[in-house]
Design goal:
By secondary structure, this protein is an alpha/beta fold. The chain has helices at 20-36, 58-67, 86-99, 116-122, 130-145, 179-185, 200-210, 234-252, 262-266, 272-281, 290-304, 318-331, and strands at 5-10, 41-44, 73-80, 104-109, 168-173, 188-192, 222-230, 285-288, 308-312. It is globular, with a radius of gyration of 20 Å.
């Protein structure tokens, strides 16, 4: 494995007692920090109908973040394509790539990014059909490439502007199903271990074995996303795990109220089912002191046979979150790449 590259997934999570404005300001601070630390790319997510997440529109947040930086790639992790008009996605990202050449990633997913009611309101014609998603991908590539096959909608409608270089196309997957689309269309693949801790390496192997080169990508390309937290202070690590484990349960239970405090969480008695779920969720994150975290992330990279890990680090303290990303950069010496 070549030198490990690090990237950031930012979900613009709203901390206790904070608000969406502060969360988005923190996203801006984080992308600037990530650039100075030599991170490869910075992705933002699309979530709907969830009060603790400010990231609902990557196509709006991406240009803001790109305008505050100069080198780091900025993109979506991802655009939930069935929620959107394919033409509009092509126009949005063609414009972004024109404004910020060779810096834009278009990560695509087919999950709703929320509940089914929200998905319906975003796109009433969405029936979660694989056939429809497949057609959207055909149309997206055709719009980007300026193709207009006989009988296609592109004979009458084209997407503008057409950048000199297309945004990098990534397919996101957590179940493994979308790996077949990534392989078929010659897109890069990102496996979300932070959603599903099982099956990722097998999915990456399937993708590589079935990959068909495209005009944009000649060889298969894989990265993996993981929740992670690093601190020299073992008590901070323990507190982060306690708080984060509850946050995941809260999300899975459809929680809409305020999160309890860390002290309240410490006194809770969890059911056997909740404990089992917490044990399962343990595979979705890595947390520890620098030596431990380095060892675990290298194991993940080896299992996926990839040279890039995307790190998502929600935390109740900006200083702890900032320090965690600094430690990751120091561990893997990404600071040395800033001027390259």
């Amino acid at each position: 494995m070549s030198k490990l590259k690090l990237s950031v997934l930012d979900q613009s999570q709203i901390r206790r007692g904070s608000n969406a404005g502060e969360a988005l300001e923190e996203s801006t601070n984080l992308v600037q920090l990530a650039e100075t630390l030599g991170y490869e790319r910075f992705w933002v997510s699309e979530h709907h109908n969830f009060k603790l997440v400010a990231g609902t529109a990557p196509e709006v947040l991406i240009p803001h973040l790109a305008s505050r930086t100069s080198r780091i790639r900025v993109g979506s992790g991802g655009i939930m394509l069935p929620n959107h008009s394919t033409l509009k996605v092509a126009e949005n990202f063609g414009l972004l790539e024109t404004l910020y050449p060779n810096r834009i990633d278009l990560g695509i997913g087919r999950a709703p990014g929320g509940d089914r009611v929200s998905a319906y309101l975003l796109n009433p014609s969405n029936n979660f059909s694989e056939k429809d998603f497949f057609q959207q991908l055909i149309d997206l590539q055709a719009f980007f490439r300026g193709e207009s096959e006989v009988g296609s909608v592109q004979e009458k409608v084209q997407s503008y502007p057409k950048p000199e270089q297309l945004p990098a196309l990534w397919m996101l997957t957590s179940s493994g199903g979308s790996a077949q689309f990534a392989a078929h269309f010659g897109m890069a693949l990102s496996f979300a271990q932070f959603i599903n801790p099982e099956g990722g390496p097998d999915t990456a192997e399937f993708y590589r074995h079935n990959f068909k080169p495209s005009a944009e990508l000649q060889k298969p390309k894989v990265n993996v996303g993981i929740f992670a937290f690093c601190s020299e202070d073992e008590q901070k690590v323990e507190d982060w795990i306690t708080d984060f484990q509850y946050r995941m349960l809260y999300i899975e239970m459809g929680g809409q109220g305020d999160l309890p405090s860390l002290d309240e969480i410490r006194t809770m008695n969890f059911s056997l089912q909740q404990k089992a779920r917490m044990a399962y969720n343990r595979g979705r994150f890595v947390a520890g002191t620098p030596d431990f975290v380095k060892s675990e992330l290298l194991k993940i990279a080896d299992r996926y046979e990839c040279d890039e890990i995307i790190i998502a680090t929600p935390a109740e303290s900006w200083e702890d979150r900032k320090r965690s990303y600094e430690l990751f950069a120091d561990i893997f010496q990404t600071r040395l790449n800033v001027d390259n």
